[in-house]
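Write out a sequence, fold above all:
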Amino acid sequence: MNLDSGIMQKAETLIEALPYIQRFNRKIIVVKYGGSAMVDEELKHHVIQDVVLLKLVGFKPIIVHGGGKEISRWVSKVGMEPRFVNGLRFTDEPTMEIVEMVLNKVNKSLVQMVNELGSKAVGISGKDGCLLKCEKKLSGGEDIGFVGNITEVNPQIIYDLLEKDFLPIICPIGFDENFLSYNINADDAACAIARAVNAEKLAFLTDVEGVYQDYENKDSLISEMTAAEAKGFVESGMLGGGMLPKLQNCIDAIENGVSRVHILDGRIPHCLLLEIFTNKGIGTAILNNREERYYHGR
């Protein structure tokens, strides 16, 4: 019997995914969702499809999302001027109100998309269940308002949701010792949460392809590196400003128990599935020094 080559290719793809499904079954994966993939509706749908599929094949995914572009749009909409200090949003009291409103709006839209795909999601902020406690974060010694630096993570609410088979979707708003609301960088929140729940994986969806040996040479994408090698890159001064804090966050996560961190281009449809379930992968995977380099055959 002659079978269509396309059908056979689908079967081969599923078989290729099998060892990764076995390796990470029932393991927690934190997905930091941001960048262009949050703005483009088609990409947004692809990301949520990916996460739902991860859940249905046995992973325990958690989404931590930002919403910077949407916040800036609403700040401008009410006649205020978005202001940044060293890359951090100046967040006075009126801006904090907008931040909380917008992030909760984004949060519930993601919950709705997951529910529409037949899975169960619950949207929370870092204030729910006392998840994210923080203190005021200064930028170069300057007070930039209600911007928080995480001091403590209480993951119990996340464990409760996972145990009941819900997909937690978290927006990065925390509180201080006086229970005032603070805006937290989503990368920082994703890393802190991944450490607290001992996540097997942490995936950053970004607007870059990954880490390059030489940024000007697009053929120099590094598919896999150890945390020690990543430290060398940070110390070399070769990285651009946007990648530097992200790579530092990756190293911190690895040093605090996360096995693998992935930096992915969220502009590529189904980037999560391509990175996690195929031998080639598409981004940069950073692993602890004890992990073997068998993953993705790299």
Remarks:
- The first strand starts at residue 28 and ends at 33.
